[in-house]
Amino acid sequence: MTDPAPRTTALDAVHRALGATLTDFAGWSMPLRYGSERAEHTAVREAAGLFDLSHMGELTVTGAQAGAFLDHALVGRLGTLAVGRARYTMICDAAGGILDDLIVYRLADDTFLVVANAANTPTVLDALRARLGGPAPAGGAFDAEVRDDRDAYALIAVQGPASPTILGRLTDADLAGLKYYAGLPGTVAGRPALIARTGYTGEDGFELFCAPADAEPLWHALTEAGREDGLVPCGLACRDTLRLEAGMPLYGNELSTSTTPFDAGLGRVVKFDKPGDFVGRDALAAAAERAEAEAPRVLVGLTGRGRRVPRAGYPVVDASGTPIGLVTSGAPSPTLGRPIAMAYVDPAFAAPGTEGVAVDIRGAHEPHDVVALPFYRRQK
């Protein structure tokens, strides 16, 4: 049996017309780059970049107990989220392992939009539906419904310091009043969209949830509006180096079912003080205690002193060559001009400035400096 052909987004014809290098990513045909990924990366840091993110998974949770249900199903507290705001959270299994990291938007009192990573969307959908059975606050199943809305949305992101100016030319929405991790319904170039001030690049920017039929007109309108500001189309390659510089974890690299939020230094997303029980509570409480006593491993940043680039899976070693950790993500940093990586290491080697740390790159122990994350923080 042959593998099914990757799915295409509503912008597939646009990517091909622009000469994009396409790749199969999580079952989708996605643009890896349009030309130079370094130039695309730099454009986002200095001007703006345009991304097709329509492979992400949108799940709508509705019902009178939608908030209480998400409090039970996820590790965060969503029931108190204000309408129009968004929250980064996670869905874990009963053992505390991360099934996926998510952004949840509250669209109305009884309506939430859960955005999952593309490859994990079926897992998240199945887990949410399985957890509808309770226990609800009043006993029994929750008065809520989980709907698969992946086919109802295309998702376009405009990211970078010029993004408010560019988007502002196409909408009368109050972008200046739109806070980080908030969203509002509006029109962009005459097309209805949910305008969210979120992103995965470390820069200011917006993500636009629209109907698939509106994706091409919106893309072209944004391209034209940003032409004088240096807006360029951007692929997945520069998206990865941007998120790495910003110290943002990637599922399958820094996050997995063998990792708890506390292992990843993201224990703050787990809200033990919310009412009722939630899936994974006991295991996560134990993980929190272990982390407070001494974390079995710590996620750190590494910067290379040479030119060789550490990659995911490369061992981190001490001065004697003894393995002390593992690289989870690595790439050349266009902004810093040197190789960077994130790695899980033994706590004794986790402090910034720790001496004698190296990465085993094909048998050569390349010296690296331990640094605090993120590698890059934008100017406010």
TrEMBL record:
Catalytic activity: N(6)-[(R)-S(8)-aminomethyldihydrolipoyl]-L-lysyl-[protein] + (6S)-5,6,7,8-tetrahydrofolate = N(6)-[(R)-dihydrolipoyl]-L-lysyl-[protein] + (6R)-5,10-methylene-5,6,7,8-tetrahydrofolate + NH4(+)
EC number: 2.1.2.10
Ranges where the GCVT N-terminal domain occurs: 13-274
GO term, biological process aspect, one: glycine decarboxylation via glycine cleavage system
Entry keywords, A to Z: Aminotransferase, Transferase
Residues spanning the membrane: none
Hydrolase is among the record's keywords: no
GO CC annotation, single: cytosol
Domain Aminomethyltransferase C-terminal: 297-376
Annotated residues for binding of substrate: 207
Molecular-function GO term, any one: aminomethyltransferase activity
Function per UniProt: The glycine cleavage system catalyzes the degradation of glycine.
Family listed: Belongs to the GcvT family.
Full protein name: Aminomethyltransferase
Origin species: Streptomyces marincola
Taxonomy of the source species: Bacteria, Bacillati, Actinomycetota, Actinomycetes, Kitasatosporales
Gene: gcvT
